[in-house]
Amino acid sequence: MSTAIDKGAADALPAQLPLRSPSTVMRLDRLGAFFPTRLSFLRSLLRDLAAQNAQPVRTRWEIDADGYGRAVYTIELDGHRYSLIAFSTALPDSERTDRVIAEAWDTTFNLFDGIPDDADLERLANNTPRQEAGRFLPSELVLSRANKSVRLFAHVVERLASGQQPDEQMIRDTGYLMRTTAVYGNGKFGISDRSRVLDKPTLNGPFRVELLTVWMIRGFTHDLVEHVARVRDPQKFVPLAPRFKRYLGVGNSTGLGMAPFLVSHPILINNWMAARETALARVLAIELSTTQIIARVQALMARTNQHLQQWNVEDSRQQSRIDLLRTEFDSIRQTADSAWLTKARPWQRLSTLAEPLSLECQELIVALLLEPHGELIDGLAHCMSSQHAAELSPSQTTDHLRTAIETEFQWALELDFNDPQQTAQFWYVSEEKLEPRLGDRHTEPGAELELPLDVARRVQALHSELSRLPASISVAEFLLAHPMHRFAVRRVQTLERYPYGEIRDNLIAGTCLPIDMLRCKLSFFGASKFDPKSERWTRITLCQGAPLADELQYTDADDWWLPVLEST
Amino acid sequence: MICSENELVAALHKAARAAGATTGVAEDVARAGGWITARGGDGIGAVLASLNAALPQKCAPQRNDTIASFQDARVALAGPAALDLLQAGVCDEVLFFNCDSPVLLAGLAGCRKEHNGDGYVVTDEQSRPYSIGALEKLLHSKDTRFRLIASDHPEAHEAPNSTELVVQPQAWEHLLELASAMYVPSSEQSRTAGAGAGLLDND
Question: Cβ of B183 and A490 within 8 Å?
């Protein structure tokens, strides 16, 4: 009986090719070339909002003529209400900074569990604008803040108040009216742990409460700019054109604080990667595609080309990658015409076509291939969470453990940690803002307090210790004598079960570029147009091209992969 | 005051590291502190009771057939090791004499049950499980001998009694102070390389 059920379940799964191996996928340089896909968290969140016909409603608007005051938006999900509470305050130019060390912002926000009453709003008015210096309750799910793009905000106000639409090039160049400088979730400063939403299907996915907040903030920025313009000249005022609203997302500056997450959550990261790789494997297995999907891919290729033309950055390293990508993608477009895609295994052949090209191009093709195959892969978006913590298996033998290291961590065993370059950097938590930072081991103090991102070094040390054992014993007995290896043992055992859970590079080497980790994580959020400002931080835009609150039911609501602003 | 489990566990982890616990041990101890607090116990006190002096590099129990015994047990170190020995089937019970934090021992056992599904409990001589509350009353009874054994008895495994974690403000401040020993002062180098650095912010 059970065999029959199991067989039935197996038959129901779509065909797939073998997944790309973790040793291919989990390299830092490849992770640093990822693009958003339709499995990215913002995309799947907005699909789920649309499926519920959810729509935020502005329930309070106590904003003065200059745009200062407070507003509340409420949205119902899974039969439960959540509210975005926004505080907008006057901020002298001299105090406006994107740095995490800032102490004041143009706007501050909470995502609140329920509908706030006056007492809640009063309490939060005394805390939210202070951000890290405030204290919060489990009723708050998210804490965030954003600063205006001063030039664009003023320009849009001026134009709308005079009955004109803003300059298209300015909209395209900036892409947002405000940029967040932090979006805190999961228990920071007393706000709710993630456990509070685990029983809420729409919000229990990774970073969903944070990204719902960002999407609702974007709606607030549109309302705010229109409000200020309308008050300035009610007679001449015109609303912002929907195509501009849809193109304007929420900017963000992301730095090192985000990077260690990819190391400290191996099971979760495995699940993100495994879902993405499974999706790709399913698409690659398609024997023959349909006329409609081939046409859709052709249209997406044209859009991608336009997107790449509009993606320009000051960072010379990234700009040269974009330049190369434009050339490579163009050559792929020339080859992969409709006739070429009509033949057998079109997507596998397209993937093979990209193999000799840059990692940027390979990963762009991965994202492109996933885009038109929602019916085949969208369910995987619900396999990207994890409630599990990495656990030890004390009954495992040390022989087994050593073999596992030699199988999965061979790359780490090959590193020479006597070479100062291999230990050139160390990760730590800064005293100033309690945020992760990266130091130069040989010139900066604090290496004795480093965070355990030196996984490769620790696993190599564990392997050395295991190799000195005269006979195989249980892991329990080994750790009794060598408790310093507990962390590394747990990593190795976790990787056996979750093979995409480990970045297979030395994260303390002088060659480690944190920007690669940031881009990987941000691509899963759904960010595009990565704009690195150094090796350690990047600007991005979230929600660019995403449907507005009243567009979620539109037929093209989910069609916003690699958005472009079309000229009129 | 109310705190989140995430910030409590993060602070306990840093405090344990500052006291000399290895990263892997600190992970277990910190989670146990959160587990105890979620059940109305003093998780901070339970963890700090075992960290009030620098932890030794390792601990070695006496072994007698299927029983392991820790004398003057530092639970932060001996607790995870004892649970490993039980889980691996190396022994059937572990005894703790003059134990510095029996509540932490119960927290470690509870966490192991929560995450691995294997039930372990702290009991008295007659194998009667202690509750967190009962163990807190025995904090200063240095002569008490505790047994750690496998048990799936439902009464032995306490459920969280609230979704809100309540901690004493003074204990919280003390914990943050201990945790701060793991922070590194920012250098000029780090400040000039952080997110948002070097840009005009009023653009």
Answer: no
